[in-house]
Amino acid sequence: MSANAIDQSADGFEVAGRRFQSRLLVGTGKYKDLDETARAVAASGAEIVTVAVRRTNIGQDADAPNILDVLPPARYTILPNTAGCYDADSAIRTCRLARELLDGHHLVKLEVLGDQQTLFPDVVATLAAAEVLIKDGFDVMVYTNDDPIMARRLEELGCCAVMPLAAPIGSGLGIRNRLNILTIVENARVPILVDAGVGTASDAAVAMELGCDGVLMNTAIAAARDPVLMASAMRKAVAAGREAYLAGRMPARRFASASSPLEGMFL
Q1: How do 193-195 and 48-52 pair as beta strands?
Q2: How far apart are CA 140 and CA 129, in angstroms?
Q3: What distance in Å separates the CA atoms of residue 41 and residue 21, rounded to the nearest whole number?
């Protein structure tokens, strides 16, 4: 594909048999209200929107505001996630609840956390939960650490996308281990999406330049001074990083190389 004429609508990625144009996925927590949530999501251009089932009303409480009223499933692909689960059983129950509330919806984001301070994944429990959910008919997009071996294990288990962290959830530290992310990307046969740790637009661009299929973020947008403007910036950064990846960067050199040729100079 020529970088001079990248058709963003034709350069999407596929997950669980569905094709998406936007490579930016966004969360829905930490906004001041549902109106700001809706405006930021719209500005991001995201098609996949993840929702923490244990923290957000998607129909559990008929008397409370429902986030699906401002982010309708007819417009967005809702990605229920298991944020706040610290064991495999609670994550499995949460996914099954989401399927019931969303009329049989089977695309989920699995995350099983190891402790409340770091929010690092418990990879042993994650493997156990993923195995059960896949056998139960779910399409599992899975949050994990940046370990290439674990990423491969999850892919082999049948996860439809692997989502390694860039840095701890909500930290905004950016990609701390580019080589691990690159190794995961180079060896994967399913989409790889950086999840957690992005802080600003340049972090999203770096993830895409490494060859990731997409980036998922929440706090980087919701905690910005102007969330709607940051959502727009992230949209552009993901697109720019993708174009840079397709274009192929110049080789890094230790010493200077003149931009203009030295041969044929007029004296």
Answers
A1: unpaired
A2: 10
A3: 15
**Distances 119 to 112, 122, 154, 177, 236 between C-alpha atoms, Å:** 9, 9, 19, 17, 28
Over 50: is that where the pLDDT of 265 sits? yes
**pLDDT (tens digit per residue) in 39-56:** 999 999 999 999 999 999
Strands (E), the chain: 13-15, 18-20, 24-27, 48-52, 77-81, 107-110, 139-144, 161-164, 193-195, 214-217
Active site residues: 109
Under 8 Å between Cβ of 205 and 245:
no
Instruction: Provide the pLDDT for residue 259.
Output: 73
Cα–Cα dist 219/190, whole Å:
25
Q: What is the 8-class DSSP label of residue 168?
A: S
Task: Using CB atoms within 10 Å of the CB of residue 111, give its burial: 0 to 12 exposed, 13 to 18 middle, 19+ buried.
Answer: buried
CA distance 23 to 212: 9
Distance of CA 264 to the CA centre of its chain: 50
Contact 207, 181 (CB under 8 A): yes
What's this model's pTM, rounded to 2 decimal places?
0.92
Cα separation of the two ends of the chain: 42
pLDDT tens track for 194-252: 999 999 999 999 999 999 999 999 999 999 999 999 999 999 999 999 999 999 999 98
